[in-house]
Amino acid sequence: MNFITLYQACLTFGIIFVGLAAVGGLDGADFDTDFETDILGQAQDSQTPPAILSVVGWLKAALPLLNLRFWAFFALIFGLTGLLLTRSPHGLTPQSILPLAFGLGICFASGSVNILRWLRRDQSNTLIQVEDFAGAMGWVEIPFEAETRGKVKLEVAGSYLYMPARSSEARSFNVGDPILVVGLENNLVWVVADDRLDGKD
Prior knowledge:
By secondary structure, the protein is an alpha+beta fold. The protein is built from 6 helices and 5 strands; from the N terminus they run ααααααβββββ. Strands 1-2-3-5-4 form a 5-stranded mixed β-barrel. The longest helix has about 35 residues. About 10% of the residues have low confidence.
């Protein structure tokens, strides 16, 4: 197998997508959104034992495999490390370089994503207060019903946020449906349908 080609391809992918993330900034809505189905939230709804929830939550934070930025950073460091070690004068074998590059990529990507999450959370906390969510309007991003959990895009204090959501209304919420926030509970918003809005921006 030609490892150099693999490293070059990963490095190119990483440069492109890390560059897109940098241009979009910390709040780039499309790129920075985790492509996830809120596994931890579903486990909470199904009365999973707390010990398992703790392990799942820790793994999800430590190794954010469903985050696009994780794979961009991983590809960048994996490819760069592989190429540098391949060209090093120490005579490392391809079989020894591969696990080193893989390990460094995982560590750097996990650390970078969690640092960016912390910075974004800290920034949001200084600008948005809990009371700002009351009456906030938004749109459905992941469909849900009364007994399930979905995700909504909210306009709060001049910013767009993506939040897990539920509703007590006996109806289905489809992608693009307008909603109104009526409550906030443990980083989850309770919403109702908002017939005053007729579409997604």
